[in-house]
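[Automated response] Your request has been received and processed.

Submitted sequence:
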Amino acid sequence: MSQTLRDLLKAGKSRLEEKKISPVDAELLLAHLLGATRMELHAKQFDLSESERERIASEFSELITERLSGRPTQYIIGEAPFRYLMFDVGEGVLIPRPETELLVDEVLHQLARYADPISIVDLGSGSGAIAISLVSETAKKKDLRVVAVEKNAGALKWLNQNIAKFDLPIRVVHASAHDALEGVKCDVVVANPPYVPSIQELPEELRHEPADALFGGSIDGMAIPAEFIEAAARLLKSGGLFACEHNEVQGPAFAALLAKDFESIALHRDLNDRPRFTTAIRR
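Generated structure:
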């Protein structure tokens, strides 16, 4: 990286620091303008003309200003990393997060208990990060038959776009968890439902993401997760796996709701050692 770009990046990081925004965001924004990855930004030499440098400097300043307004970096650059892939995202869909990557890990680990073909339903699929990761990471190893269920038209656009981007045989169903796939039985149900308590104030950045993908429909945030648990009980075969994300205090409430129809209920922690998702086996 040239000294000019280093100075530009330093100035961008300094502006973001005033609002306690991660300096990584400045790197992602500059890399996006240069058509490079964040790692290439530091390792690669960019041969820019004076007019190109001026254009990059002007556009970078505009993107930093946009980021300072609260708009997430992932929406600005139009993509977000999740596990080994980059997903297209924008207004109308929840941004996939690292905490959910461990849920995928656990499901991949537990797939060994099922014989091919393995039927999987991803409830509230959003960007498709979970469903697409499961299929892409088991290619040529497992025969997965995946259905991605999403009720929000805004998120559905991004779900279909990402499935097309990675050219994967994932069926999309436009429906709520409550209504989807009546009469269908499957081996695995995965979900990252809306679970934020309705009385919780969101940080500024989350306010740009769709509220119906965040709030769980009640004071404790459990109304919509309860619908997902009910749907999982309806969809799963006996012995089927349910894996569902929640916040750090909802584990006991999940366990209580699951106890009626599930066994082997296990609470799992995220990268920050906080309770983050629960798995259970359908009786």
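Summary generated for your ticket: Residues 3-69 form one domain. The first strand starts at residue 79 and ends at 82.
If you did not submit this request, please reply to this message.
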